[in-house]
Amino acid sequence: MNELKNCPxxxxxLKSGLMSSxxxxxxxxxxxxxEYGEKKSDGFCTKCGKGIYEExxxxxxxxxxxxxxxLKNKIxxxxxxxxxxxxxxxxxxxxxxxxxxxxxTGVITEFTSSFSDLFGAQSNRHNQKLKSGENxxxxxxxxxxxxxxxxxxxxxxxxxxxxxxxxxxLMVCMAGxxxxxxxxxxIKKEKAEIIDKLSYANNRLKELQKFE
Length: 212
Description:
three-stranded antiparallel β-sheet; 4 helices; alpha+beta; single chain; elongated; Translation Initiation Factor IF3
C-alpha cells in the first residue's frame, strides 16, 4: 500500500519538518470527526482537522454526560424483584449479578440495642445506612444487567452483616439473576418505554468508549 502524500480531506501535501509540518490525525481522531462532523473523510490532517476534532471532542463529552445523567436518573426503573418466576413474564436468563456495599457504622453497631432505641435517633441513623447500602447494591445489579444486555433482575436475595474485629463496618450484599425481558408490556407502559431507552443509552455509552 502506497503511503499517502496528500490529506484525503483537504488535499494538503503531507510533510514533516522543523519549521513546518502537516501530518494525518490518528485513526481514532478521524473516527471521532466522522462520528460528529457533517463532512466524512478517510483522513484529516493537522491543518484541516484540528479545529473540527476539538469540536467533535466537545460533542462527545456532551453526549456522554447526557447519557450518563439519564442512566443515573432513570436506572431505578429497571425491575429488581425477589420472585423466581414472575407471572406472565417471557424472558431469557443471562447470568448471576451481585452487588456489595460496606460502610462504617461509627458508634452505632448494636442491632440489639434497648427497646427505646428502636424508635430513637440511633435506630434511624442505622436504618439510613442500611437504606444507603441497599440503594448502592440495587444500582450495581441494574447496571450489570444492562451491561449483559438485560433489562431486569429476578430471584434477588439481600443479606446484611457487620464485619471487622470490632464489628464497626456494615455490609449489604445482594445477588440476583439478570434476564432479558421480552414482553415488557407486562409492566407499566411508561416504565417499559424508559427501560428501552435505558438499554439504548447504556449501549450508546459503551459504543462511545472506542473514542476515548
